[in-house]
């Protein structure tokens, strides 16, 4: 009688199948995680601009108008001569309007634009990363001349231009 040899290991095919499945699951999990990260940063951008809107309205109540803009930044940071406020710095002009101006959580930046017809309204811009966001604008909005953005928050009192 011939004895059968028992093998206690895995075959090469079984190992390759397991490795392929783990690779597929890793890639799928990583892409879902990255999508979640993008949505989180986009949510933060919208919250930041919403808080900036509140500070701009307080400023307008105190001074009778919105601060000027230059190069996509708010004019009017501390000092005797108003300077452009850097994103992430304190916005102080007589009173402290924001302890820290919001700074984009990714590698982009925000943009502030005052209307050129007397400063009655403003627009705040950000670049959203998640193209499936309901507020994502694929038309690439322009702010400060040539910078492109995919999200805009309008001041509460903006008057739309009538269509001819």
Q: If helices are DSSP runs of H or I spanning 4 or more residues, what is the number of helices?
A: 1
Element string (H = helix, E = strand):
HEEEEEEEEEE
In angstroms, what separates the terminal alpha carbons? 100 Å
The fold-level CATH name is Glycoprotein, Type 4 Pilin
- Approximate shape: elongated
Q: For the CA atoms, what is the radius of gyration?
A: 26 Å
Summarize the model shown.
The protein is an alpha+beta fold.
Write the layout of secondary structure elements.
Layout lengths: L11 H52 L5 E2 L2 E5 L5 E2 L6 E3 L1 E4 L12 E4 L7 E5 L14 E3 L3 E3 L1 E4 L10
Antiparallel strand pairs: 1-2, 2-3, 4-5, 6-7, 7-10, 8-9
Description of the molecule:
- By secondary structure, the protein is an alpha+beta fold.
- The chain has one domain (13-154): Glycoprotein, Type 4 Pilin (2-Layer Sandwich).
- Helix content is 32%, strand content 21%.
- The protein has one helix at 12-63; strands spanning 69-70, 73-77, 83-84, 91-93, 95-98, 111-114, 122-126, 141-143, 147-149, 151-154.
- The strands form four sheets. It has a three-stranded antiparallel β-sheet, with no helix packed on it. It has a three-stranded antiparallel β-sheet with strand order 6-7-10, with helices on one face.
- β1 (69-70) and β2 form a beta hairpin.
- The longest helix is centred in the N-terminal third of the chain and has 52 residues, at 12-63.
- It is elongated.
- The chain starts with 11 loop residues before the first helix and ends in a 10-residue tail after the last strand.
- 20% of the residues are buried.
């Amino acid at each position: 009688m011939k004895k059968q040899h028992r093998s206690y290991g895995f075959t090469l095919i079984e190992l390759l199948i397991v490795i392929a499945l783990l690779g597929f699951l890793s890639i799928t999990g990583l892409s879902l995680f990255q999508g979640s990260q993008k949505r989180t940063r986009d949510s933060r951008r919208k919250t930041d601009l919403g808080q900036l809107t509140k500070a701009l309205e307080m400023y307008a109540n105190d001074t009778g108008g919105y601060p000027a803009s230059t190069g996509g930044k708010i004019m009017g940071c501390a000092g005797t001569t108003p300077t452009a406020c850097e994103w992430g710095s304190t916005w102080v002009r007589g009173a402290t309007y924001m302890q820290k101006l919001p700074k984009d959580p990714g590698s982009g930046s925000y943009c502030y634009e005052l209307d050129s017809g007397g400063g009655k309204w403003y627009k705040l811009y950000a670049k959203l990363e998640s193209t499936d966001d309901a507020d994502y604008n694929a038309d690439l909005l322009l702010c400060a001349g040539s910078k492109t953005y995919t999200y805009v928050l309008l001041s509460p009192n903006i008057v739309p231009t009538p269509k001819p």
